[in-house]
Amino acid sequence: MKVLVVGANGQIGKHLVSFIQDRDNMKAKAMIRKQEQASFFENLGAETAVVDLEDDIETIAEAAKGVDAVVFTAGSGPNTGPDKTILIDLDGAVKTMEAAKAAGVKRFVMISSFDTRREAILAANSSFAPYVAAKHYADERLRSTDLDYTIIHPGKLTNDGGTGQVEAAIEVERGEIPREDVASVIVATLENDSTISKEYQVVGGTTPIQDAVKSI
């Protein structure tokens, strides 16, 4: 399986590309914004594609040609304003869905926010609400497509080392999860077709990742 990782230069994305490259049955293609980011992935033996999510659908579709799955891990980041949140977390996500369809790719995994229900938008503070709203509508759009999607809703992200154990279900108590474990969860999701057309929340826990994902 060849996987296009969108947002590969992010912290989850780097872990994900590394884990994919370590597997015998997977290869990663890292979608990055700048050529100077390529060396990290080339050293892992991964292919790269320099594409900005503010580019057009056709440019993103070109990067998606020949892959078997797309994973959207991109985000505008905490230091940008609502304008970038809309352009990356919403419009960028929707363009990537359209690009996947144009490239003939069916499998699509979305890394979303922990809770993207409308109630979560209303409950969020003024600085966080645009992000939750963007994720809400991106998730809604993905559900309406004919893509073989999975939406993953991770808890509060940390840079702690991965434990290899999580709690995953349609709804779980809020908690933290290392980015490294989120990357492992993505790999397990790609390997389990039982996750297609499903979404789940995931936080740190006591269940091995493969078992947790298989139980979804």
Automatic annotation (TrEMBL):
Q: What is this protein called?
A: SDR family oxidoreductase
Domain spans labelled NAD(P)-binding: 7-192
| One Pfam family per UniProt | NAD_binding_10
Against InterPro entries, the record matches this protein to:
NAD(P)-bd_dom, NAD(P)-bd_dom_sf
Coiled-coil portions: none
